[in-house]
Every structure is written in structure tokens, then in C-alpha cells.
Amino acid sequence: MQKFFVIVLFSLLPAGAVIAEELKIPLASQGDPAVKVPGKGMTKAKVESTYGAPEQKYPAVGEPPISRWQYANYTVIFEYNHVVHTVQRHQKRNPTPES
């Protein structure tokens, strides 16, 4: 009987009771295209020889093992020994002067 009242109660709520906001970010504004970053498929050895040592290396977790290396302006994500994605850090376009 209690389930019946719950179902009736929710069926009486107006469809507009749920409000969501969508945030759209144009692809061109997600990073500086002039910044050279490691490409998909590069090995860890090639990334390190080309871009230098990362600021920090995070150990692999999960299965398949996913690890990441943190550089100053981007993060490189590896699956096993190969790059699967590179994410640029957000850079403010108009930084405010420090007081």
C-alpha cells in the first residue's frame, strides 16, 4: 500500500520540477593549440625523451593499468606503456594582477 502512495505522489509532480543546466565549451577554447603535447600511441620512453621528465608520475591503477604523468601545462594518461590521452591544464586568458 505504501508503494502505491509513493507512485501516486511522484506521478502528480509536474514534469518541470526537475531543472538542469547545460554547459557548452567550444573545442577551440579547451587548450592552446600551440602547445605541443604527446600524441596518442607514444610510448613512455618516447614521451620522456621528447618532452623531458614529468613533474610527477602517478602509479598505475585498475585493469587495464592506467597511469598518468603530470607536466607543467598538461597531463599525459597512459594505458600500459602507451599514451591514450593528453589533457591540457586550464590557463586563465586574462589573469588578474596580484595585489
Describe the protein:
The protein has two helices and four strands; from the N terminus they run H-H-E-E-E-E. It has a domain at 31-91. A four-stranded antiparallel β-sheet has the order 1-2-3-4, with no helix packed on it. With 99 residues, it is an alpha+beta fold. The protein starts with a helix and ends in an 11-residue tail after the last strand. Strand 1 and strand 2 form a beta hairpin. The model has no long low-confidence stretch (mean pLDDT 81).
Write a concise synopsis of the structure shown.
The chain has 99 residues and is of the alpha+beta class.
Helix content: 10-25%
Roughly how many Å is the radius of gyration?
A: 23 Å
Choose one word for the global shape: flat
Question: How large is the share of residues in beta strands?
Answer: 15-25%
Task: From the structure above, extract its key features.
single chain, about 100 residues, alpha+beta, 4-stranded antiparallel beta sheet, 2 helices, 4 strands, about 20% helix, about 25% strand, flat
Set out the fold topology.
Elements: H1 2-12, H2 44-51, E1 56-61, E2 66-70, E3 74-79, E4 82-88
